[in-house]
Specification:
Layout lengths: L7 H15 L1 H7 L21 H5 L13 H4 L10 E9 L5 E10 L4 E11 L3 E4 L5 E5 L1 E14 L3 E14 L2 E15 L4 E11 L2 E3 L2 E3 L4 E9 L4 E10 L4 E12 L2 E8 L12 E9 L2 E9 L5 E11 L14 H4 L7 H12 L2 H20 L1
Antiparallel strand pairs: 1-2, 1-18, 2-3, 3-6, 4-5, 6-7, 7-8, 8-9, 9-12, 10-11, 12-13, 13-14, 14-15, 15-16, 16-17, 17-18
Helix pairs in contact: 1-2
Length: about 375
């Protein structure tokens, strides 16, 4: 029996088929269907959320991405950063797939900031076969994106940003490259409400041999609202070029400074799975300005996904020293007339000791009643 000669294009195609057969989940990530008229999308790994905090919030993150995740989620948020930040992530994905992430941000001052990130999806060794099903040896594959972003404030409320990315893919001995940009914006509508709009993955096609697939271009429209109850609420709608739309929602409760509890839901992961596959849960632990986060994403019968990420912050401005003088606004503007006074009142209560809270609350209550009578 003679040994079959392996021609690189055919062998690689057979290996890709073996990969998709062995790991159907990865098939969805690398080249998922995009509708009868739209063909397929390449580099769909870019749709996998990065960062344990964004993942736990149901990927409703574009309106709050004024942090180290801004280069990937919304480059417009870089205009609002105030500290140097580093982030690293390890994701134990389905089967033998792993997803690594690293990012950094640096404020330039005057409402300007830069950042960069690396996304890397790997599969480990996968058995390959030829067209007749005979084994051809193990092979591996990976997808990566290298991002560099810039953001700037325009005035006091609007920030805009741009992210350029290089996408590299390799399946066995076949490689492909693509180039794209993201456009991002954030608008501070009120002291509590932030709006965002992001256009992602505008660029060239990712071509393996003689097949080229479009990148997963999508519009993201998001909003975030800070409630006076130590809870932040986020929502996001995503419209993709393939005609599919999805809805994302998340909430973060911080009962005490070192701890944040997170919950979210997204609709784009439940197709063909149970409704539970859209649920996202997580926790954040804060210490000395840094943060460790964990997220758990169940995907029904496919298994569970677990995120671990670390955010380091350093070199930022010192927080302003608070004192009781700044809370005189509570007396001048009772809560019934000024909604912002409620925030000041809660901060004042945090500063006071237990023995002082009751007299102050009683005094403010009398002034509030007097204001209403007038």
């Amino acid at each position: 029996m003679t040994k079959q000669t392996r021609r690189p294009p055919q062998s690689s195609c057979f290996k890709v088929l073996g990969l998709l057969g062995a790991l159907p989940v990865l098939a969805l990530l690398l080249s998922k269907p995009a509708g009868a008229s739209a063909g397929t999308e390449g580099a769909s790994f870019l749709d996998i959320p990065v960062g344990a905090r964004p993942a736990a919030l149901g990927s409703a993150y574009s309106a709050v991405a004024s942090d180290v995740y801004a280069p990937t989620w919304n480059p417009g948020g870089l205009g609002r950063i105030e500290t140097n930040e580093l982030a690293g992530q390890h994701l134990s994905y389905l089967e033998s797939i792993y997803y690594e992430y690293f990012s950094f941000t640096h404020p330039l001052g005057n409402g300007r900031g830069v950042g960069g990130s690396i996304q890397y999806l790997g599969t480990g060794d996968i058995p390959g076969t030829d067209i007749t099903g005979n084994p051809t040896g193990d092979f591996s594959s990976h997808y990566a994106a290298y991002n560099f972003a810039y953001g700037q404030m325009l005035g006091t409320k609007l920030s805009l940003g741009l992210n350029g990315k290089i996408i590299h893919a390799k399946i066995s001995d076949v490689t492909a490259n693509a180039y794209a940009v993201d456009f991002g914006s954030q608008y501070q509508a009120t002291s509590r409400l932030t709006l965002a709009a992001v256009l992602t993955n505008v660029g060239t096609k990712l071509k393996f041999i003689d097949q080229a697939d479009s990148l997963p271009l999508a519009w993201h429209f998001g909003a975030a609202y800070k409630t006076p109850f130590k809870t932040d609420l986020m929502t996001e709608v995503v419209y993709r070029q393939n005609g599919l739309a999805s809805f994302h929602v998340g909430g973060e409760w911080t009962p005490m400074q070192p701890l944040s509890m997170r919950l979210g839901y997204r609709t784009d992961t439940v197709k063909g799975l149970s409704p539970l596959a859209g649920l996202t849960l997580g926790i954040g632990i804060h210490a000395w300005g840094h943060e460790f986060s964990y997220a758990w994403l169940p995907l029904g019968d496919l298994g569970n996904t677990q995120y671990f990420s670390l955010v380091l912050r350093f070199g930022g401005p010192k927080p302003p020293r608070r004192n009781l003088i700044q809370y005189q606004a509570i007396k001048k503007h009772p809560q019934a007339q000024d909604p912002d006074a409620a925030d000041a009142y809660m901060e004042l209560m945090e500063l006071l000791g237990p023995e002082d809270k009751a007299p102050v609350a009683q005094k403010i209550g009398k002034e509030k009643t007097r204001a209403l009578d007038n």
